[in-house]
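Final report, closing paragraph on structural work. Over the funding period we assembled a curated collection of sequence-structure pairs, and we close with a single example.
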Amino acid sequence: MLKTTTAVTRFSPVSLTQRVPGSLLIMLFALVLAAWSQAGFARSLPDFTDLVEENAGAVVNISTTSAPASGNRRFQGLPFDERQLEQLPEFFQEFFRGPQSPFGGAPGNAQPRRSMGSGFIVSKDGYVLTNNHVVEGADEIIVRLNDRRELPAKLIGTDPRSDMAVLKIENGDDLPVVKTGRSKDLKVGEWVFAIGSPFGFDYTVTAGIVSALGRSLPSENYVPFIQTDVAINPGNSGGPLFNLDGEVIGINSQIYTRSGGFMGVSFAIPIDDAMSVFRQIRDKGTVSRGWLGVLIQEVNRDLAESFGLKRPRGALIAEVMDGSPAEEGGLQAGDIVLEYDGDDIQLSSDLPPMVGRTPVGETARLTVLRGGKEITLDVEIGQLPDERTAQQAAPSVGSSSTSPLGLTVETLPADLADSVGVSGGVLVTEVGRGPAYNAGIRARDVITEINRKSVSSVEEFRKVVRGLPEGRAVSVRVVRQGRAIYLVMKP
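Its predicted structure, as stored:
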């Protein structure tokens, strides 16, 4: 039997402080607090195990095979000829000649090209979503499920603008499917996770948070990408991005990298946009997007000041295309779009996805800043054309004028005005050091407007320049190689 002494029962905090130094007490308290904090932090982290088990069955590995490049052109681009290759060590010969060679293998021994990616099943009858670049040019597509079944798939359609492809598993029946969520409900900072096949390692799970929303990338203006820090590498392309409700809220598509591997910046196509593309491809075979018919640019601090905005926001219309929905709806160059169907436009990149998602033929309400006042316009949205054409400006001669801005202008000939699509303006023939050069104006630019005043002749140009306020930023609209832009100049 254990024996309890009265010394233990009578031991008080007062007597403890008398026997143990204060510094040691502080240290012990800090250790206890740190252990408690770490335990609490660990309990606050999400557990992905159940979510992965529930959804892995609907995630697939996609492998493609396509014919080798004819004539083995890649090998012919080697910096060595055959004799020089024979002088290299065998390891390097295999590197340049072998089937895994980045230069395509030895002449006469071309191998089929293979690629690998990820995807996910969105319907029980076998529709699969993935990236266009995963299946582009493929002659054969095989979909592998996590139960190790390998099923052939047919390409239903692609949308290169959004880098999306829709596949259909042949003989698919009662297949596992993912749940789709709403990407518009995402918030920066929330947890997300991905399932995919990076470097061919099937069903790899990586997790992170949403880093930013509505990212516009140079490759595609009509997709408001979700930026995450989820580890994405080659082979993850086309795979799903899940939220903590087990819903797909994005398709992993691109990474930012300087090394070819993950660097903490990944981009996913929002599922709202992806499902719209899927339904159009499934039902019609093609994808149509809304089109406004304007060229826009960002509103920086100086432009905001010159247009009378308190802070930079909105999308500045640099040019309205002839016969476009924007022209018919009354939009003008120099308007700043502040709202689109009630949604604020903070960055110019916000506008294209909003227009693209609008069904063709519907009317959108735009709030624009014109002449320092907000007005509302109703514009019927058209269909985005497949191609754009830009006309090139050519040099010309005529009467000229040198201005205090440091540039020389001359009358714009009628044939040149027609070729660049303007009805007035002056041609810049020479630019020296001065406000015009600092603003970015260059020779062969066509100036059509200064400080919100139209310029259609050399005389009007002189008059407007004489009335410019000193030391205050003014806007200058120029047409360069057939495209209009706004520049900011401080006389």
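Confidence is low (pLDDT under 50) at residues 1-18, 71-88, 387-400. The first helix runs from residue 6 to 9. We thank the funder for supporting this effort.
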